[in-house]
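Hi X.,

You mentioned you wanted examples for the new student's onboarding notes, showing what a folding record looks like when two proteins sit in one file. Here is a clean example. The first protein comes first, with its sequence line followed by its C-alpha cells.
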Amino acid sequence: MESNIISDIVNLAVAIQQIPAPTFSEEQRATFVHKRFLNEHLLDVSVDEIWNVYGRIPGLGDMPPVVISAHLDTVFPQSIDLKVSYVEDRIFGPGIGDNSLGVASLIGLIWHLKRRASRRGREVNHISSHLPGDIWLVANVGEEGLGDLVGMRAVVDRFANRPAAYIVLEGMALGQIYHRGLGVRRYQITAKTPGGHSWVDYGRPSAIHEIAALINRLTSLPIPDEPRTALNVGIIHGGTSVNTIAPEASIELDLRSESAHSLSSLVSQVEMVVSESNLPEVKFSIEVIGDRPVGEISSDHPLIRLAKHSLEDVGISPYINIGSTDANIPLSRGLPAVCLGMTTGGGAHTVNEYISLGSLEQGMKQLISVVEGIFTTSYSAA
C-alpha cells in the first residue's frame, strides 16, 4: 500500500480526533464525515435521525453487500483537552485510537479503491469497486458508555440480513479478532429516605449509608471465574451537604459475562438483593440503563477463517477474542460479523491514549484482504 495513503489516514485521524464527540453529542463529527463522504463521491450519502452517516461504494455485480462501520463517539466530555503529541512512532491524544483512527480508516479504504481504479484507467471521481457487490460505509453513534450501541442497532435494523457480513473497525487492537459479543447489563440503582439534619435527626437512615451497604452486599455475591463474569460499581451519586442526612443516593452498576446464562443468573441475584434491601423508610428502585446482548459466530466460521488468514498474510498472529463492541448487535441476531483492529496502541479511555504508526499499513492490508475475500466464491459458498 502506498505510504502517502497511510500518512493521509493518520492526518485524517488527527483531524477527526480534534472534533469533540461525547456519546449523544456526535453531531459535529458526523457532519465532518458526511462532508467527506460527499467529497469522495460516495453514492446514497445520508445522515439518519440519530446522526449515523451512510455512504455506498457501488460494486460491479449483484452479490450481497458488505457493511463496514466505525463508531464516532468517545468517552471524553466536551471539556477535555484534545491536544495531540508525537513521540517516536506514536501519536498520543484522547480518542485517537478509540475511535478516530477507525473512522479515518473507512475513508482510507475509499482512497485505496480510487488508487486502484486510477491504475486501471477508470474515472476516479466516480468511485466504484472492482468487487461484485456494494460496500456500505457507516460512521455510527452511541457505541461508548450509556450509548448502549444505539447507532449499531439502527444500522442492523436498516440492513438486517441482507449483507454478506458486518465488519466493525476499532482503531487499536490490531491482531484481535472479536467474533463473540460480551454480554453487558447496566443498572442505575437509587435509594431514597426521608433525610434530615445530621444532628437533630440523627438515627434516621441515610440514603448514602444505605447505598454503601447495598454495594457491600452486591460485591459479596459469588462471581464465577468460568465463564468469566464481572460486577463493577462505576459511579456513585448522592447527598445534599456535609451536615445533611442524605435523602437520595444512586449508583451505576455494570454486569458482564461471556455467558448469557451466567449474566442472567447474576442479574437475578442483583435484582433480588435490591428488592430485599427495602425497609419502611428506605426505598430502592432499579432501572436498566444498558443492555448489550450476547452473540457469537464459530471460530471456524468462514468470516473468521478469512480474518485469520488476512492477518497471517501480513505477518501477524491472530488472537480470537470476545469483547463488548458494535459487533454485539449483528452477532446477537445470528448475523456474520467481526470486529477488527487497525493498529496497535494503548491507554484506551485515558488522556494518555496512543496509537502506533508502524503497524497501520498491516491493519489496512488486513481490512482490504477481508473485504475482498468476502466477495470470493469460496467465502460465499462456505
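Then the second protein repeats the pattern, sequence line and then C-alpha cells:
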Amino acid sequence: MIADAAVDAGAPRAGAGEGERPGGGFGPDSGPGSGGEVYGIGNGVSAPIPLRRPPPAYTADAMRARLQGVVVLNCVVRPDGRCSDIRVTQSLDSVFGLDDQAIASAREWRFRPGERLGSPVPVLVRLEIAFNIR
C-alpha cells in the first residue's frame, strides 16, 4: 500500500469581502470582513510548506475491496502550521472509510505556515491524498 499526498496552490481563494479586511468566505468578493479571515495563496500571501505528511492508513475493508484513488480535501493551514476546517471536496469512499482516513491523516500534517507581510496567517490549501495498493 502506498499513500501519496500533494498540496495544491490552486485552492479556492478567500473572498475580498467588504470593509478593510478580506472576508472569510470563498469565491470573489464574498463574506464580510470579519477579522477571522482566511487568505488565498498569491497577492502577497505565501503558500504553506508541508514539513510532515504522515500517510493515511488503509482500512481492512478498503484493502479487501482493493479500492484505490484520490481523496481531495480543502483545509485551512493555521499560523501554528496545523490543518483545521478540513472538508472533503472529492470523495473516494465514504463506505469503507478512506475519506475518514484522509481527514485523519491531514490532521497530523504539519506545515511551515503561509505568510503575509512577514507574519503567519491562515491560508486555504487543497490536499490530494492518494491511496494505491502495490
